Amino acid sequence: MAKNNNPSEAIRPDSASTAQKQPETGSVMYIGPSLVETGVPFAHGQIFNNGLPPEWTTKAKLQPEFGRLIVPVSRVGAAMAELRDPQSHLSTLYKSVLAASKVQKEARK
Question: Higher pLDDT residue, 80 or 104?
Answer without folding.
Answer: 80
